[in-house]
Amino acid sequence: MKYLSTDNGRALLQQLEQLSTLPRPVLGHVQSLPNQAIDLPHRHPWVQLSYAERGVVTVDTADARYLAPPNLAVWIPPGLEHGVRPGHNTRIRSLYIAADALPARSCRVLDISPLLRELIVAFSHFPVEYDDAGAEGRLVRVLLDRLAAAPSRDLVLPWPRDPRLQPLCRQLAAQPDCALPLGHFSAQLGLSDKTLSRAFKADTGMSFRQWRQRCRLLAALPLLERGERITDVALACGYDSLSAFIAAFRALLGRTPGDYMQQG
């Protein structure tokens, strides 16, 4: 994995601007541009599948934050401004995909099956100009077919557009262990609890409680990937009860934090 400094990131963006088309329908060699994480906002005319073979990848857009541990990946459509941040000890195996190679999709988190994972990893060792008419091209077509069928997951944290809510959400995302109640924030903003709740629901599609729980669970993933104790992760993400953390984690990811760490 390569994580670029701001200066190096700007240099990479200049390279991207010079790349008007992809040399093949899919680009993703281990040393090619897709496998260099850059958090500076940028966009390009092709799909990006932001995937980590190990660790967690975070993709930020103006509308939401998307997290993908190794069994998931973020689908970034052409033209969408975004930044990509890797977690601790992350190994990226991302892809650039020609816009006409797959049906259009909005930005989302996709499920990466064991078969799809192996296809992505195998493809990462193909030359940039692989043999599109031979065995390499056939593997790419299977890879694209599996990506088209991959279901979506809910590891998305929507950002509100309401300027009153934005500082509040940024604070909670930066401090997932914050225990201040809704009433504290509504008083701070000069709003009633009901008004703040309505604004939250209208702007994010989630209640304040749902949004905060999603925020905490997404903050837990990089900590679990680092191998931290589950009890410590629960406390760091604002859960007073380990059982409550396990139940919420299972509801979102379909497995307990212990199962997640073992499978990872």
From TrEMBL:
Residues 163-263 form the HTH araC/xylS-type domain. SMART domains: HTH_ARAC. The keyword Transcription applies. SUPFAM superfamilies: Homeodomain-like, RmlC-like cupins. The keyword NADP does not apply. InterPro entries: AraC-bd, Homeodomain-like_sf, HTH_AraC, HTH_AraC-typ_CS, RmlC-like_jellyroll, RmlC_Cupin_sf, Tscrpt_reg_AraC-type_HTH. It comes from the Bacteria. Keywords: Activator, DNA-binding, Transcription, Transcription regulation. This is Helix-turn-helix transcriptional regulator. It comes from Zobellella iuensis.
